[in-house]
């Protein structure tokens, strides 16, 4: 049965995975709240989705990299779409920083921690409460296969994604039986603007590279099923790698991760 939420809120909707999630949901007739900083990108996407699919789209231009992102977003939502709460929330906004930690720009590092960890948690807290109260809703937190193991050269980024993964898995258990669904989407390296933003010299991290379509279509297929798994790794090679990372002792996984990062 195709999952067709009445209203979906997607953060980081101005490019990459977030923009494609918005497209896929609009194709199904879902109204949207699209959140990011680049107004031109959001307006362009909103116009396209209204024209092609006749859905209502609310672009919300907001820098989520700040304290109180969750309440601020709910306030913006109340102003944009009074009386409506999202049935689906995709906590997708995030970025990474390549290079040894001691060479990372300190301000950019803090901005990443604030967005990937603090804002994501604040938004999760803010949207999950009304979902649990009404006994329905779906929350997707975008983690990464990087969250399954440490990655020298991308250390703080994958640590933020380990946080997202652990948080979401625990929440999956906390909301069990309430009618609310939670999952962590864990893409492997995917061809988006991520690598330009992260400052990768080679465009992609080692490992199996997926397209945004592979990732988002796997998510949508999972959303169509009644139950969601605690985490979802979209493609088979990355799934095998993630399971291996969970079962391998760290002293073995760490040198493997270091070798993969050196090749990237
Ligand atoms: N691509 C990969 O290989 C990969 C793999 C695993 C996980 N992921 C995760 O997937 C998610 C989406 O990334 P992507 O690959 O689609 O990369 P992307 O194309 O760079 O998209 C990132 C999105 O986040 C938004 N964003 C960044 N900083 C923000 C801020 N301070 N406030 C609000 N929005 C902000 C960006 O919009 P604005 O710049 O307009 O604000 C953009 O829409 C991220 O959480 C990333 O960590 C990506």
UniProtKB/TrEMBL annotation:
SUPFAM superfamilies: NAD(P)-binding Rossmann-fold domains. InterPro entries: NAD(P)-bd_dom_sf, SDR_fam. Signal peptide: none annotated. GO terms for cellular component: membrane. Keywords: Oxidoreductase. One of its GO terms (molecular function) is oxidoreductase activity. It holds the Pfam family adh_short. Gene3D superfamilies: NAD(P)-binding Rossmann-like Domain. Belongs to the short-chain dehydrogenases/reductases (SDR) family. This is Short-chain dehydrogenase.
């Amino acid at each position: 049965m195709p999952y067709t939420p009445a209203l979906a809120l997607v953060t980081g909707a101005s490019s990459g995975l977030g923009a494609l999630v918005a497209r896929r949901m609009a194709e199904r007739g879902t109204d949207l709240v699209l959140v990011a900083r680049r107004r031109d990108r959001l307006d362009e996407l909103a116009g396209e989705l209204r024209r092609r699919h006749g859905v209502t789209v609310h672009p919300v231009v907001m820098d989520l990299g700040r304290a109180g992102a969750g309440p601020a977003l709910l306030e913006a939502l109340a102003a944009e779409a009074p009386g409506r709460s999202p049935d689906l929330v995709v906590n997708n906004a995030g970025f990474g920083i390549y290079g040894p930690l001691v060479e990372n720009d300190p301000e950019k590092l803090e901005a990443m921690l604030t967005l990937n960890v603090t804002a994501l948690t604040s938004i999760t807290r803010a949207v999950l409460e009304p979902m649990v109260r009404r006994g329905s809703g779906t929350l997707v937190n975008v983690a990464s296969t990087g969250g399954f193991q440490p990655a020298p050269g991308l250390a703080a980024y994958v640590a933020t994604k380990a946080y997202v993964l652990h948080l979401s898995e625990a929440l999956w258990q906390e909301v069990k039986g309430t009618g609310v669904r939670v999952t962590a989407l864990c893409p492997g390296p995917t061809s988006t603007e991520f690598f330009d933003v992260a400052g990768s010299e080679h465009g992609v991290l080692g490992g199996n590279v997926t397209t945004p379509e592979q990732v988002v279509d796997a998510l949508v297929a999972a959303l169509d099923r009644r139950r969601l798994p605690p985490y979802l790794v979209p493609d088979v090679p990355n799934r095998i790698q993630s399971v291996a990372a969970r079962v391998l002792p760290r002293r073995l996984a760490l040198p493997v991760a270091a070798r993969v990062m050196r090749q990237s």
